[in-house]
Amino acid sequence: MANMKQIAEIAGVSLGTVSHVLNNSANVREHNNRSKHLNN
Questions:
Q1: Which range marks the domain in which residue 29 is found?
Q2: b/e for 3-13, b at 16 or more Cβ within 10 A?
Q3: Into how many domains does the chain fold?
Q4: What angle do helix axes 30-38 and 15-23 make, rounded to 10 degrees?
Q5: How many Cβ atoms are within 10 Å of 23's Cβ, its own excluded?
Q6: Residues 25, 6: Cα–Cα separation, whole Å
Q7: DSSP per residue over 13-25, as a string?
Q8: Alpha carbons 33 and 36: distance in angstroms, whole number
Q9: C or N terminus of the chain, fewer CB within 10 Å?
Q10: Closest CA to 17 of 9, 38, 1
């Protein structure tokens, strides 16, 4: 299983963005959100 740092590297986003998406705690551009889900 990938950790958050690996997900960020694969998705081409920051570690903070991955954290925000997983915790649904901040506005994340739809493009970034979609990219994260496509890489799962």
A1: 4-38
A2: eeeebbeebeb
A3: 1
A4: 90
A5: 8
A6: 20
A7: S-HHHHHHHHHT-
A8: 5
A9: N
A10: 9
pLDDT at 25: 78
For residue 31 the two structure tokens come to 């493009």
pLDDT at 23 over 60: yes
Contacts of 17 (CB under 8 A, 6+ apart): 8, 11, 28, 32, 36
How many helices (H) and strands (E) in the chain? 3, 0
Longest dimension (CA), the chain: 26
